[in-house]
Design brief:
The complex is a heterodimer.
Chain A lengths: L1 H30 L10 H10 L1 H35 L1 H16 L5 H9 L3 H25 L3 H8 L5 H39 L3 H11 L3 H29 L1 H4 L7
Helix pairs in contact in A: 2-10, 3-4, 3-6, 3-8, 3-9, 5-6, 6-8, 7-8, 8-9, 8-10, 9-10
Chain B lengths: L5 E10 L9 E9 L3 E5 L6 H9 L6 E6 L2 E2 L7 E4 L11 H11 L3 H4 L4 H14 L15 H13 L5 E5 L7 H18 L2 E5 L3 H7 L2 E5 L6 E6 L14 H19 L5
Parallel strand pairs in B: 3-8, 3-9, 6-7, 7-8
Antiparallel strand pairs in B: 1-2, 1-4, 4-5, 9-10
Bound molecules: adenosine-5'-triphosphate and magnesium ion (MG).
Amino acid sequence: MTTDRQRRLEQAAPWILSVALLVVWQAICTLFEVSDFIFPSPWTIAQALVEYAKPIAGHAWQTFWTTMIGFAIGVAVGLALGVAVGTSRFVYRGLYPLLVAFNAIPKVAFVPILVVWFGIGTVPAVLTAFLISFFPIVVNVATGLATLEPELEDVLRSLGARKSDILLKVGLPRSLPFFFASLKVSITLAFIGTVVSETVASNDGIGYLMMSAGSSMKMPLVFAGLFVIGVMAMAMYELFAVLERRMTGWAHRGAHASG
Amino acid sequence: MTQSSAFVDFRDVALAYEGHADFAVEDISLSIRAGEFVAIVGPSGCGKSTFMKLATGLKPPTKGTVTVAGNRVTGPLKIVGMAFQAPTLLPWRTTLDNVLLPLEIVEPYRATFKRDRAQFADRARALLKTVGLDGYEDKLPYQLSGGMQQRASICRALVHQPQMLLLDEPFGALDAFTREELWCILRDLWAARRFTVILVTHDLREAVFLADTVYVMSRRPGRILARREIELPRPRDLEVTYSDAFSHIVHDLRERIGAIRREPADA
Ligand SMILES: Nc1ncnc2c1ncn2[C@@H]1O[C@H](COP(=O)(O)OP(=O)(O)OP(=O)(O)O)[C@@H](O)[C@H]1O
Ligand SMILES: [Mg+2]
């Protein structure tokens, strides 16, 4: 069937494109004899990945769990703030403009402050990941709650439900698709936060590895670091995409919704 | 009817929606006995759904008072089952879980819901079966047709055995056969349990077949224009809808509604 083939082609698309990109990249590097110190070819990056596998794995692990802790705090705080903003007009009026202003500040600007407070290392990285990742969650959860159809709320109200019932039985389930959509955005942001902080204020993690590799002119290793971050972020993104489809199939209604 | 025997009592009730200066309904005064089956008919937009929201306390009246079961209504009531004009099933819940929802919220079921879930689910299944939805318990709302969703929402309104049942055009999306079948189901349920019913409908035959009393509402701002008791003997069989007496009443109601429609809009 054509639809079946189309589907398989669609699934293969990212792989095909990635391979094509690598081939073109390698071709350019080889043809124009680009120096590895400027722009390393995929092949030399792969070699670096193998050669430094051990230290890369160590730093990647550091970056990974740092990000996960920051992200977890971001989810908890984001959910709490999102529920507060989404359910209370008062909090919405008071807090939302502040949150927007806060979100506009580049989070790199916080790193020096965090270093003064907590010293260099894991703590500022965790906090940067948290600071950068919680905002989309707040906005999405609040939007999900605020756009709740009054008809659905009336169903519960007409049963004499308490406010907390309405939140638990309608508000939160109804915001789940919004919540999961924001998780996908936030997890990638959290990686950015961690790496940015590690780059300037840590002796550990992929950010630090790239920084030190760069200063000793090991460009293939710098690119290997980039690659590892990309893979980690993509893997987590996919994980949340799968979770999203599992948990909120009703909102997508697609053919592959029922699991 | 004296005031003391009234289960639902509207006194000079008017309601203006937030941000609207003019009333959606006004001068509504009526009394409904406990166990009475009332139907409300009227042109579209005249305020029938608004009346229902007043009767359950979802909207407080702008003027006048609403009393239900002897207490002045100040907020949503807990003794009511309501089927809204739109099915309003929760899209993330299966049909069965949607029907179980009131039991998770309304006392005394709420207290024992976790423990008695299996028993409650059986009750919900039995109810779904009476409206022909057996086999669809585990489907999500979007997998049901509009009429099936409507039937599920009627089950949801009934499952906690409320003292008062409010139905806002519940059979609007159904074909004639299913509709008449559901009339009979509702008639039998009511005969067995004798809850108070307020039924909003566009279908005069439906109103006359089911109700003890039919109220006719005027165009916006909605008022009660006429009240007509239906003296057809009970139990009523579907056959009665072909009788002369039946046609006569339907005809009479149609005349009155026709009169509303012929009035100039700005009257
Ligand atoms: N939430 C609302 N806000 C403002 N106005 C409303 C609202 N709901 C209804 N109205 C207005 O109140 C009037 C009565 O509406 P209502 O829904 O009660 O009519 P209805 O008799 O149920 O009509 P239908 O038979 O078409 O369902 C209408 O003029 C409508 O525009
Ligand atoms: Mg209506």
